[in-house]
Hints:
Blueprint: E1 3-5, E2 18-30, E3 36-42, E4 50-55, E5 64-74, E6 78-89, H1 94-102, H2 111-121, H3 125-131, H4 144-169, H5 174-184, H6 188-194, H7 198-202, H8 208-217, H9 225-241, E7 247-248, H10 249-260, H11 269-281, E8 286-290, E9 293-297, H12 299-317, H13 324-337, H14 344-355, E10 358-363, H15 369-382, E11 387-391, H16 394-404, E12 408-410, H17 411-414, E13 417-418, E14 423-424, E15 436-439, H18 447-455, E16 462-467, H19 480-487, E17 492-495, H20 500-503, H21 506-515, E18 523-524, E19 533-536, H22 542-559, E20 568-572, H23 581-592, E21 601-604, E22 607-610, E23 614-617, E24 631-638, E25 643-648, E26 651-656, E27 663-665, E28 668-670, E29 679-686, H24 696-703, E30 706-714, H25 716-724, E31 732-733, H26 735-738, E32 748-749
Parallel strand pairs: 4-6, 10-16, 10-17, 11-12, 11-15, 15-16, 18-19, 19-30, 20-28, 20-29, 29-30
Antiparallel strand pairs: 1-6, 2-3, 2-5, 3-4, 5-6, 7-9, 8-9, 13-14, 21-22, 23-24, 23-27, 24-25, 25-26, 31-32
Helix pairs in contact: 1-2, 4-5, 9-10, 9-11, 12-18, 13-14, 14-15, 21-24, 24-25
Residues 340-343, 346, 363, 365-371, 468, 499, 501-502 line the site of adenosine-5'-triphosphate.
Amino acid sequence: xxxxxxxxxxxxxxxxxxxxxxxxxxxxxxxxxxxxxxxxxxxxxxxxxxxxxxxxxxxxxxxxxxxxxxxxxxxxxxxxxxxxxxxxxxxxxxxxxxxxxxxxxxxxxxxxxxxxxxxxxxxxxxxxxxxxxxxxxxxxxxxxxxxxxxxxxxxxxxxxxxxxxxxxxxxxxxxxxxxxxxxxxxxxxxxxxxxxxxxxxxxxxxxxxxxxxxxxxxxxxxxxxxxxxxxxxxxxxxxxxxxxxxxxxxxxxxxxxxxxxxxxxxxxxxxxxxxxxxxxxxxxxxxxxxxxxxxxxxxxxxxxxxxxxxxxxxxxxxxxxxxxxxxxxxxxxxxxxxxxxxxxxxxxxxxxxxxxxxxxxxxxxxxxxxxxxxxxxxxxxxxxxxxxxxxxxxxxxxxxxxxxxxxxxxxxxxxxxxxxxxxxxxxxxxxxxxxxxxxxxxxxxxxxxxxxxxxxxxxxxxxxxxxxxxxxxxxxxxxxxxxxxxxxxxxxxxxxxxxxxxxxxxxxxxxxxxxxxxxxxxxxxxxxxxxxxxxxxxxxxxxxxxxxxxxxxxxxxxxxxxxxxxxxxxxxxxxxxxxxxxxxxxxxxxxxxxxxxxxxxxxxxxxxxxxxxxxxxxxxxxxxxxxxxxxxxxxxxxxxxxxxxxxxxxxxxxxxxxxxxxxxxxxxxxxxxxxxxxxxxxxxxxxxxxxxxxxxxxxxxxxxxxxxxxxxxxxxxxxxxxxxxxxxxxxxxxxxxxxxxxxxxxxxxx
Length: 750
Ligand SMILES: Nc1ncnc2c1ncn2[C@@H]1O[C@H](COP(=O)(O)OP(=O)(O)OP(=O)(O)O)[C@@H](O)[C@H]1O
């Protein structure tokens, strides 16, 4: 039996503490994050169920609890028992045991199996599972495989409980406790006690602040070098999340000093500098001094940037001998037979693809990048080259396949990612077998992916990098496409002419206007719109915007023949706020996928995830082969196996409950996450509440995700501000300098 203290602030001085015993009948609400729980308890000899409220680590229906707390009168819900402390005893009645076993506590045992087990072993059930679990084979319908599964799950849940108890007392939520356990197993407590900051390196979702809280609860000295090192790395990690490959010393010092100062401890720049220098000497960080400014890199960033530059220079070194008149002849015959005319810029690009090993093709929407790429692919085919097409995301690869008429792969797949080694099979030692490679949506290439790709390209192969430089930079660190162009080392063709077919599109016109810093032409919404690029003022307040978005999705969009559930994507500049993704997801879920009896759902940290919900993957998961930004739909929820099935395009992928924080609702997603994808209809809320994030390339990227219809919702002021703002999102990188490019300052902000 274990005793747990809950965090509820029961005012015991006013109402006396009393004891209460009972069996948990059902859980009304449980927050995985905080453990805050509302449950219904059946007490012996009491007819009515009691509502209990408090923080619980791992509460399950069927548990027998002994509680201490106070009675409270809740204005809305009446009398409740506010739990201060609780302990658990094993259930003692047949029904209690059955409920406990079947509550989902053990993977592999649902209510039906629980009934069978209890019918066989009666009151000895729990003792047998604990001490003589091989006997489970005696239960009809349970085979050897299931026995093994139950044995494993039983041991795991016991160990989890222990780890939970330890972590809860040190301020960690139950969700993270499960993740910590999954990562470290039985070593969890030892690792956390030894170095709580390890968690922030190993576990997705645990950052320095959570680790710091645990460390504080464990009594780690706030002035310890140990803590300072973790704080400095954390600041560099945060900078990487903002896209930087390094930080100059002054910025790093300021940020780390602030981060390391707490109520009990004041950190100083001198103290941080001392630790920073040691980290440099010990190569825990790489120090590079440029123009007298010390720059600090995480080692992997430094070496990757350096090696990427070396790989590119190597590709550029190999000369290419081509018979240019023959190429021109081929282009003439090709364009004549296909009855097309290439613009001079396009002609230049096609010739360059034959004569240069590496080149970049850039330009805005409708300028014919795809058209040109198709011609280049045809030329390469005619030259007898073995060709590969790739893009950073599944969606972008799919689009490229459709447009180019040959199979395109994600870069991960092209490079043959191996989940076992967490590395790519293709690389310097085993390069790609292709003679010519096209990589599309190159604005999404971050430092690491670009390096993995380029080092796998044979030095005698061709590489065509296609991308729109005005789009948002990659989610990951670096600004590779921009840097490659800036270095002036790689030949670039910029397509600038918008083709007639594209000129009629209001979306394309608005995108080019935004790029030039002009207020875009948007048609005010009406019942019979002419343009495909519309504007709805969205009222004065963000609340009105939410209402407007709902009405657009419910009434307007279907009136134009679009499906409100599958065709529309709401893209927001940010997560927080009333018109942020978090709130809109709640509202749109209610509108588009409301609760229903036939739709199972699970509570995930206070948010519901329901069958039919649109979801987005939030990190690269190489084992499941699902990548950051992939969209799917909740297909089914299995409360016995603790698993959720997500349908991604044509693939079903299973998630354990504990891994559900890899997913977020996607009725509304951030513009950043939408890169590389296109949707029939895009709704783009832009409000002054977003002003810190509003920028030209953000709105440009959001708008150009729309294939058939874009609706901007929000104030003119916010749209105007975004269009004028061209200076945000600068990133620290040294790639242009490493390529030996003509950069005025070598400490580069791309
Ligand atoms: N040389 C050309 N002659 C005739 N039409 C062209 C030519 N180049 C492009 N187009 C047409 O212009 C339109 C836009 O071209 P394309 O789709 O290749 O642009 P893009 O730069 O790839 O745009 P996006 O970035 O939006 O995908 C298409 O309808 C295409 O067929």
